[in-house]
Amino acid sequence: MKKLLLLILLFVLSAGHILLAQTVVITGTVTSSVEGGGPIPGVTILVKGTTIGSTTDASGKYILTVPQSATTLIFSFVGMKSQEVLISGRTVINGVMESDLLGLNEVVVTALGISREKKALGYSVSDIKGDQMVQAKETNIVNLFQGKLAGVQITNNSGAIGASSQMLIRGTRSFGDNAPLWVVDGTPITNATDAANQWGAVDYGNAASDIDPENIASVSILKGANAAALYGSRARNGVVLITTKKGVKSKGLGASFSNFTSIEQISFLPTYQNQYGQGWNGGEAKFRQATAAGQPQEGLSYQDYSHDYVFKYVDGLGGGINDGFDESWGPRLDAGLHIDQFQGKDQPWVSHPNNTRSFFQTGVSATNNLTLTGGSDNVKGRFSYTNIYETGTIPNTDQKRNSLNASTSLKLTNKLTADLNINYVLTNNDNLPGQGYEAGNVMQSIGGWFGRQIDMKLLKDHWTEWMPNGHPYNWNSNYHNNPYWTANKNITGRQRERWFGNADMNYIVAPWLTLTGRYGIDYYSEYRKSVIYEGSNQNWVGTGGSFNQSSSERKETNVDFLAAFNKSFNVIKISGNIGTNYRQADSYNMSLSASELTVPNFFHISNVKGTPGTGFYESHYKTNSIFGALNTSFKDYLFLDLTLRNDWSSALPKDSWSYLYPSASMSWLFTETFGMSKSVLSFGKIRGSWARVGSDTSPYSLQATYVASTPFNGLSQYNYPGTIPPAGLKPEFSNSIEVGTELKFFMNRFGIDFSYYDTKTTNQIMNVDISTSTGFGSKTINAGEIESKGIELTLTGEILKSATGFNWTAILNWTRARSIVNSLYPGVPTYQLNSSWQSLTIEARPGEPFGQLYGVGYKRDTQGRVLLDGGFPIATDHNILLGNSMPDWIASINNEFTYKNFNFSFLVDGRMGGDIFSVTKWFGDYSGITETTVKGGIRDKGLVLDGIDIATNAKNKIAIDPQDWYGSAYWNFVEPGVIDGSFIKLREVVFGYRITLRTAAIRNLNISFVGRNLALLYKDKSNDIRIDPETAYGTGANATGLEQYQIPPSRSMGFKLSFDF
Amino acid sequence: MKNISKIAAVSIILAILTSCTKGWEDLNTNPNATVDVPASNILTFVERSISGSFFDVWNIGNNTDTYANHMTKIQYIDESRYNERDGIINDRWSNIIHYQVDLNKIIKKSTVVGSENDAMVGVSKVLSAFMWIIMTDTWGAIPFTEGAQGEEGILQPKYDTQQSVYNALLTMLDEANTLLASGKGTLAGDVMYDNDVLQWQKFANSLRMRVAIRMSNVDPTTSKSVLTTILGSPATYPIMIANEDMAAFTWLETTWREPFAEDKISRDDHGMCDVFINALLHTNDPRIGEFAHPAASDGIYRGIPAGASSSFSFYLKDISRIGTRYRDIFTGKTYLMRYPEVEFIIAESYARADLLNDPVKAQTAYEAGVAASCTEHGVSAGDITTYMADANVAWNGAGDWGYTNLNKIYYQKWVSLFKQGHEAWAETRRTDIPQLTAAPGSTYTGHNRPPFRWPYPVDEYNLNPLEPPKWDSNVVDRFWGDKMWWDTRTGVN
Fold it and tell me: Would B480 be classed as within a structural domain?
């Protein structure tokens, strides 16, 4: 720390001789050019080429102190044309802003928080203004980007409350982390994600959801490594750059309030059959076979056969007929049969088509925000408080969040300003639901194996009772919990307390030189506790219950110094900066667990039976960096940017922990160069860039350390790790090129923005699976090359336009991202990204696209026809290629209509391709609960599968019983579980009305209806199970392509009310 | 002046940044785990871990125990019908070789000049051989020579023939005996024999007899030589001579529980196979109450076919479940090798003309083996005498099964190997006694015996793609076709 203070001193001293430079105070009012538009609050006024700036207050007024040498001010605002105004010695400068959907002089925030004119950038940057972030409401900020930008793919991991979402910018470029870096006001903020995995866990969400959209002034998405070279390694997957709202000077107090209340309902469930209940051999064909002449059950009625041989409840543990079965190959429903289920008496054997659906409840989400702003010439402040209360669609799940944001800006002298930004966020969950393949996920029971004859109301009414068999009241005592028991007893609570923010000092050394020092922190502590009650399926009767609790802390500190300069020489302008970054990240985690308890259901570690489980983990990591950027422009139509950065990382070996990387980008406005007529092609830009980004690895990857297991009789147990550590690890490098063009037509009414990129990542640091014959499962290596290429296209259009009448604008985004593994490592034929049941693997093999699904499939002839033996498919001997988890393309269309004070918009987005192994379908077919297992009356008439009979070499005509196929041999084939994940969704609808009241009490009243995730408009026909194709576990490269009993997605509809007062 | 101060500032910044890496190697030293541990704690791990991961329901209860027709799955019958999960196949393969890495670490630590510990090396070799036997008997050709050397850079090890593995194991166990006898070093961390070196020596030689007898039909010369050596010099080659000598791992009441008892907490998937129960009933076997519970419904011992067909209907309450000592006790045992097996190996050696050929000694050993197994199961001396008089049990007795004395040895060995699925499956493949049939509900039709082998792991096909295809050309339906080198049965498929 001392060294850093020294560093500040150095900056000050080295610039000491120009401390006396003069400044000027400029004031003014900014109004709208639209008739009756009046003053505009929140307009940004910047001194060109610097970070010196201000914003207009509630009455459109601003005050700005500028160096005497400042020549130009830039006025910018959402949806308005930015304009440059020469100061020319004036001290009062008023601005008139013109509406400009596709502004030529648009200003965007780029790396290090520096505002740049978009036209000068040689790489692709997308931006979203703050009001678009609060138009529709999502408590997880990541979801707000869904369908809004080309090149950005958002995947909701599940419909559970608090669940994480993953963001991929330009697809997958690495075997490891592909998540973008989040930066708020110049300070990196972790988006650490603790999502469920397929084998079951709780999804604790992603940490960026602590960012309150109400505080956002604008968001810039830097897509490529090109755009992000100045943030270093962590920015190689793109950067989400957030600028928060700040206080403005005003006469009195500026206050605004908003409320958003919505209801959340599950939007759709898998398609289940409603014709047959639980049991085995219960279909009509099986019945006829068993009761035919000469058979043991000869002559029995369907009632007697079903009751005595197919399903009869006695104790639910196998004491009756198949009463421990959770599969649905039982007797026909609604056929007048009477069979005991789990109530100790025979009852009508009837279907309950809504049994799964009826478990879910309507969730409520309420968000209230109060914002106060105010300020004088020298002191400005903004204070915001948001309270969120949500309940989930699964009973007894919730999330509460209180967010406080305070920002102040002090002008200490005419040259020195100090800004302080603090966020405090407290998130509480009384219960988060389990997910994946585990008894704690209600969907495993009621969505994957649930008898179609079960009356959910019975489970709801009696869940607190115990059955004579010693188990809680339930439909099946062998493998499942009553879903109400799960929701009410086996709960996971969480509390996260987070602080993040930064303190900045800005000093104007000279008209051409500004110094900035920034200290940013991001800290959270999180407490979690999961309990499982005695009698639950997870731990069974007599164990007393179990629990797991943990507390963790994560802290990251960033200290930056930046010197920004700016000079003009005739037609050549030069600006740039030199800076340093010091970063330290520390984390601590401790956990205690008990798998059995002495006193039942007393969840305290003092009550553990046996040895408590313990976890104790800490991690420390530092990086130092030095960087610089040089931006030059020629005649305002040719721009060249160069950057250079060197990082030192503590996670790498000493001889390779320092690494240097450059970037270059260029932008050329050809329409300006040649002074072309603007009536058709109004604006044309060609851009290109090249960048190299180096990156390190996670701490402690260099050595093999023994793995400890719980001591045996007091003896510690150690075994050698299953991963071979790397020798002589080097940093990995990504080399990217990007070319693109921006074209605007008919006086900017229509626009095209096109990008092509190609990134090659070499020397990747990765853990590859190796043959376990080596004694190890994986090896950390430094090799291989992944190439990701893509195309991004945005079309914008003001289709209808009139000053006060009907306006229609549309934006279309289209993205294609492809990653290919060019090479791996000698002796490593494939990289396994993930695996699932029956050795289904998701792999990256050299020469093949990333994300290939391999598994056992149907044996086919040379024409690709399925071969059948006796009516049954034949399994391939080994895994074959079954699909690819990467989408072919993703796209979205947003339409916005305005008429006077009304506005209406809808967003449709979708994805084509992207295969998924759906366990809900695969096991659903196996368990006989899906529509597939009954359609066409196949349990009565038999099933003739499509294919070639190997005996006759002709089209198969042999009918088999669906139970003998789906309920048995089907399990050996994973191919039928692979579905095409294409979809189109009606993502968002907003209908709003704005009332501009001039009364003193309430102004600017807005009311809008907002609907999110309203409908699945299209899905592929292979997705006959109708799962939500948007599904993922976690955020890594391996997160997609697997679905396992997903919590149904939720549809949200609500009203937003906001006003200023 | 201006420029000089700028240059100075930049160079000072650079100097500061580079000096800021001081202490970074310490910073990047993992505080959560250690790079070195005592050999004894690795030994504790290996003993506990192999006793769990090779003898739980996934590795014997679901498959080898049912292939040997001791047990069967009664719910989710898949594995008993040879629908094995690929993950289980991958795990058995990878676990065996990973334990070899652990044992190699013990050996390395125990051969450091100045602190040699022959006892630790000997024990490591015994455990190593124990696992290689299971591995080769499951797959045949395995990466014995080149395996477990990932750290040495062999990423795609070649496989060795089963014959060469068997010969190497004989040598390895001989070395173990010599090391254990050397008196150099003491054991620590041994929770199986409580650091008793002599017991390990007995286990080493008994295990060597297991290897020798298995290969006796294909290489009787080598078998004979090994058995002659061991039985001829008990002072140099001590073997198990009482039930107390058994190689067994005893589990704890909490946390580390006997795997079948742990499974019983949440699952009810296993019951008795009809072949085993019927044989025990037919001979009035006094051990039946130890092996099995009578059916809950009527108190009768009743098994069902291993891997019953899906049309075979039964009530769970009508089936005998696994007996108390084998499934109901947390502090139960995992049996790596038991004393009666040694007596049956001796009996076979003497009973066979091509081996040691001494029928009198054969009978003595046979009867000692039967008695020892009965005693182990708490049978009284009187009941043992009664049982031994049964015509199907008695030496030279003319039972209705028509068993020769040698067949009786095989039969009794099969009974005594209950819940030692790997060995019981291997021996039924070698002896064909009792003669078993494939599961009625088999996924693969047309076979007249339980599986001959396991398919190579999917991971090997993916990650070591040149090796499995070299060895699987005769494989039929994943589990048949390619017999073990020592499997000389004919007419089986």
Answer: no
Does the beta-carbon distance from B155 to A779 stay under 8 Å? yes
Q: What is the DSSP string of A270-304?
A: --B--SB-SBSS-SHHHHHHHHSTTSTTTT--HHH
Radius of gyration (Cα) for chain B, nearest Å?
26
The CATH number assigned to the domain holding B397 equals: 1.25.40.390
Q: Is residue B441 part of a domain?
A: yes
Q: Choose the closest CB to A772 out of B94, B252, B313.
A: B94
Q: Say if residue B195 is in the same domain as residue B301.
A: no
Query: Does residue B67 share a domain with residue B190?
Result: yes
Say which residue the tokens 């900014």 belong to. Answer: A30
Q: Is the dihedral of CA B43, B47, B48, B53 positive or negative?
A: positive
> Does B363 lie in the same domain as B286?
no
Nearest to B460 among A619, A716, A773 (CB): A773
CA distances from B483 to A187, A893, B424 (A): 66, 63, 16
In a domain, B73, yes or no: yes
Indicate whether B274 and B130 sit together in one domain: no
What b/e string do you get for B270-306 counting C-beta neighbours within 10 Å, with b at 16 or more?
Answer: bbbbbbbbbbbeebebbbbbbbbbbbeeeeebbbbbb
Of chain A residues 319-348, which have a CB less than 8 A from chain B?
319-321, 324
User: Are A1008 and A990 contacting, i.e. CB atoms less than 8 angstroms apart?
Assistant: yes
Q: Are A515 and A561 in contact (CB under 8 A)?
A: yes
State whether B251 and B116 are in the same domain: yes
Our count of domains for chain B comes to 2
Residues 394-413 of B with CB under 8 A from A: none
B439 and B338 in a common domain? yes
Handedness of CA A223, A226, A229, A235 (dihedral sign): positive
Among the candidates B300, B327, B354, a domain finishes at B327
Q: For chain A, positions 908-947, list CB contacts with chain B under 8 A.
A: none
pLDDT tens digits for range B207-247: 999 999 999 999 999 999 999 999 999 999 999 999 999 99
B255 and B265 both lie in a single domain: no
> What does the mean pLDDT of chain A come to?
88
Contacts of B40 in chain A (CB under 8 A): 715
A288 part of contact set with chain B, CB < 8 Å: no
Closest residue of chain B to A708, computed from CA coordinates: B33
How near does any CA of chain B get to the CA of A905, in Å? 50
* CB atoms B156 and A777 under 8 Å: no
Is B263 an 8 Å CB contact of chain A?
Answer: no
What is the extent of the structural domain holding B162? Answer: 39-260+330-471
From first CA to last CA, the distance across chain B in angstroms is: 95
DSSP-assigned letters across all residues of B386-443: HHHTSTTTSTT---TT---HHHHHHHHHHHHTTT-HHHHHHHHHHH--S-----TT-S
Give tens-digit pLDDT for A263-289: 999 999 999 999 999 999 999 999 999
Domain end (from B292, B327, B362): B327
Q: Is B197 helix (H, G, I), strand (E, B) or coil?
A: helix
B492 lies in some domain: no
Tell me the three state secondary structure of residue B266. Answer: helix
Q: What is the pLDDT of residues A192-209, one digit of tens each?
A: 888 777 777 888 988 899
**Per-residue pLDDT band at A107 (split at 50, 70, 90):** confident
Distance from CA of A435 to the nearest CA of B (A): 20
Tallying the residues shown for chain A, one arrives at: 1061
Distance from CA of B272 to the nearest CA of A (A): 16
* One domain for residues B273 and B370: no
Q: Classify A1028 as helix, strand or coil.
A: coil
Residue A908 has pLDDT above 90, yes or no: yes
* Interchain pair A626, B458: CB under 8 A: no
Give the mutation candidate from B459, B478, B480 for the A interface (greatest A CB count, under 10 A). Answer: B459
